[in-house]
Amino acid sequence: MEESRFLDAAITAAEHLWMHAWDPNEKHLFRILRDGKLSESGKLRDYAYLSQSMLTLYDETGDELWLKRSQSLVDSMVEKFWDRQQGGFFSVTENDAADLIARHKDRFDESLPSGNSVAASSLSKLYRRTGQHIYARLADQLFQTFAAEIVQIPTSYGYTLKALQDHRDGSIGPLEFAGSGSVRVSVRAAGRSDNRIQTIVEVTLADGWHVQSNQPLADNLIATKISSVSEDWHLENATYPPADEAYLSFQTDPLSVWSGTVQIPVDFKAAGERDSALQLNLQLQACNDELCLLPENVQLELPVGLIKG
After folding, report:
1. Is 3.40.720.10 the CATH number for 175-306?
2. Does domain 2-169 have CATH number 1.50.10.10?
3. What is the pLDDT of residues 45-78, one digit of tens each?
4. Quick count: other Cβ atoms within 10 Å of Cβ 293?
5. CB atoms within 10 A of CB 266
6. What residues pair up with 256 in beta bridges, in sequence order?
7. Which of 189, 188, 268 is nearest to 232 (CA)?
């Protein structure tokens, strides 16, 4: 109930900002809304933080509206703040910098993450959720821009380093994306006893996409399988659902596949510390009627210590 209340409040706040502080025609964000009047153009931090918030709402709700809004903010952020000569984002637009001595770049992470570090995180997350390589290239350029300073004073780039790690290796948590954004994978607790935990691994595929079942019909096909990578938790049982039979345009033999949303109950047994995080790996290969992407291993982590028995 509490989590639902907080999520509803976040959605209400985000919707209010989008409807009243964002100009969809000019692709422009205002930072002050008072008595129904807008003033002062948004700075880099405003675009970066709001785009990150929209991505969080997309992750929590699965509603693509928030993903599209985050994309709109990031695209506008790149257009208004990106340094096309040296890389990285300026703190203000070119117009707002007309009366300034220099156009500053907000890059040091202090009590709050810098505008550039949050922007880098948003770019990386958008790439994983959309598969659009432009976001990955911009994130790469941003990290390269500040690489020398990061090496010299890493303590001033804490959130930037976290964003870089997630960009290179993927974030570790109960939700991850694969298949260039066509596959959404999550894990949640379904129950817990003294030395066992029951989970549900959910795989949601975009329209037109599928993965092989855990028992593909040919040896050269990649099975979708779950394994434990936790020393303290061993996989005891995975109940894979029945598969559908499908034919693709480039293959004459039938395939055993899953599409849409698939839920896989998975039971784990404690083999060590019972409050350590449960880490699992999902092997899969996303395909549509025209092509198959490279096989992937998606790692998820569930904070077991917060689950009540």
Report:
1. no
2. yes
3. 999 999 999 999 999 999 999 999 999 999 999 9
4. 17
5. 23
6. 245
7. 268
Distance CA 205, CA 287 (A): 10
Dist. CA 77–CA 121, nearest whole Å: 13
Q: What is the pLDDT of residues 228-270, one digit of tens each?
A: 998 899 999 999 999 999 887 777 789 999 999 999 999 999 9
Long-range (24+ apart) CB contacts under 8 A made by 1-10 are: 7/60, 7/61, 10/53, 10/56, 10/57
- Concatenated DSSP letters of 23-63: ETTTTEEEEEEETTEEEEE--HHHHHHHHHHHHHHHHHH--
Are the beta carbons of 212 and 255 closer than 8 angstroms? yes
Residue type, 16: H
Tell me the backbone φ, ψ of residue 129, rounded to 5 degrees.
-95, -20
Q: What is the mean pLDDT of residues 283-303?
A: 93
Contact 263/202 with Cβ under 8 angstroms? yes
Q: What is the domain partition of the chain in residue ranges?
A: 2-169, 175-306
* Rounded Cα distance, 9 and 281, in Å: 33
How far apart CA 52 and CA 49 sit, in angstroms, is 5
Residue 231 CB contacts under 8 Å (≥ 6 apart), including other chains: 271, 272
pTM metric for this prediction: 0.89
The number of angstroms, rounded, from the C-alpha of 229 to the middle of its chain's C-alpha atoms is: 21
